[in-house]
Every structure is written in C-alpha cells, then in structure tokens.
Design a protein that fits this description.
It is a single chain. By secondary structure, this protein is an alpha/beta fold. The protein is 41% helix and 21% strand. It contains 6 helices and 7 strands, in the order αββαβαβαβαβαβ. The protein starts with a helix and ends in a 5-residue tail after the last strand.
Length: 170
C-alpha cells in the first residue's frame, strides 16, 4: 500500500461517509485524516490514556490485550496498536469502522482487530479477556439500564485495568 492508494481510499471514504470529525490520525508522512498537526483535544486525550496504560497496566504495552469499546474513528485503538498492544476495537457505526480499517491497513497494524458490533453485546465467551478495557466517551450515549449491564460485562472481561471517561447531565 502506498501513499497515492491511501489518499485515494481516504477520498472515497469521505465521499461515501463524510470527513473524519473527531480523530486526527497520521496515515502517511504528511497525510492525516483531518489535517497535519493538532486538530483538536483528542491528541492530548490519547497521550493521557497511553500514559495511564503505561503507568497502571500489569505489564508493558506490547504484551497487553486491550479492548476499546465504542472506538469511534479509532484514535485510541490505533495508537495503542502502534505501540505494540493487541487491540480489539468495537464500533457500532459502519462509517467509523471503515475509517479505522483504512488506518489499520495504511499503518500495517496486524494486532488491531476491528469488530462491527453493538457494545451492549460484549460477552466474555465470544470476546475473551483483556488486560485493559477502554470505555471512553461512551456511557452517556446509553440508557441507564444498558450502562449498568455494560459495566457488569466489562467487569467480566477485564483482568486488570478499566479506564472510563464520560459526561453526565441531569
């Protein structure tokens, strides 16, 4: 895969699904999903999450199995896979999954598994166990009953560290 092919596939994805809106991924030297450089606050968020995983997980990143629930356009899953982790990214929207697929292929991330699924279907028998589970910006999209059920399922699949980031409102 070369830069010309990646750029062409990026244009096709944008024509079909619209531009990247949240995650600015570097696909090639000067080819980004949004624009070169910092495009928003997610770049700082990913650095914080990477540091938390490095500081609190049970081993080095390259030996971890990580689950990214509601992965959106893939910034966290891609960056952790680039660091050597084995990552499973679960995303319910086809458009986001296809955008992640482009990043996976462009960056040659063999240890990044993409799943087009509803996070509420998380199941230990089907998904296995993980050293780290990321639940970033997801819970506030769910009904209260689904939140508690999902948190129970996260508990079942997580061996060590869960990182939750969410918003609340009355």
């Amino acid at each position: 895969v070369d830069k010309v092919e990646i750029a062409a596939r990026k244009r096709e994805l944008e024509a079909r699904y619209g531009p990247w809106t949240a995650h600015n991924l570097q696909l090639w030297d000067d080819l980004y999903t949004i624009r070169p450089g910092v495009a928003g606050g997610n770049e700082a968020r990913v650095r914080r999450v990477l540091q938390l995983v490095a500081d609190l997980a049970p081993g080095p990143i390259e030996r971890l199995r990580i689950l990214d629930l509601g992965a959106l356009e893939g910034l966290f899953a891609v960056e952790l896979a680039r660091q050597g982790a084995s990552v499973v990214a679960v995303e319910g929207r086809e458009a986001n999954l296809e955008k992640m697929r482009l990043a996976k292929e462009a960056l040659g991330l063999e240890h990044l598994e993409l799943r087009h699924e509803d996070v509420r279907a998380l199941d230990r028998a089907r998904h296995g166990e993980f050293d780290v589970v990321l639940c970033l910006g997801l819970l506030y999209h769910l009904d209260a009953s689904d939140i508690f059920s999902l948190l129970e399922r996260i508990y079942e699949v997580c061996r060590d560290l869960v990182i939750i980031e969410t918003r609340i409102s009355p």
